[in-house]
Amino acid sequence: MTDMGKSRVTRENLPQVVEFTLRLCESQLQDAQRDPGNYALTRDLQIAVDALQLINSEIHAKTRRSKDQRSCAFTRYVIDEEDRIVMDPALKETIVAIEEVYRRTDVI
């Protein structure tokens, strides 16, 4: 699953996709933070990392929020900031798909 555009997020692979995508975003965030001119990319990636960390922690926790209380923070950010988002479009779509599958999933 190295090509984000070809990966499909499912209930079965959700934990692995979250881990992979989180590591990818963290790495890209570290790179972006080295250049002060990358403010927009840094902002996009920080919001993505925060959202993925929350999902990852909830996946691994013994107790989880009910479906209606699960965060879709990144998806809301995409809706609000669509025209200003500069991160890789395939990565953005993968994170939105992760949130959608996570929001609908009962047990992982």
Concise synopsis of the structure shown:
The protein is an all-alpha fold and 108 residues long. Helix content is 62%, strand content 0%. It contains four helices and no strands.
What is the overall silhouette? globular
Query: Number of helical runs?
Result: 4
Q: What's the order of the H and E elements? A: HHHH
- Rg over alpha carbons: 14 Å
Would you count the extended β strands for me?
A: 0
Quaternary structure: single chain
**Count of the separate structural domains:** 1
Query: Beta-strand percentage?
Result: under 5%
User: Uncertain segments of ≥5 residues (pLDDT<50)?
Assistant: none
Overall SS class: mainly alpha
Topology:
Layout: H1 14-33, H2 39-60, H3 73-81, H4 89-104
Helix pairs in contact: 1-2, 1-4, 3-4
How does this model look, in words?
With 108 residues, the protein is mostly helical. It has one domain. The protein is 62% helix and 0% strand.
Key traits:
4 helices, mainly alpha, 108 residues, 0% strand
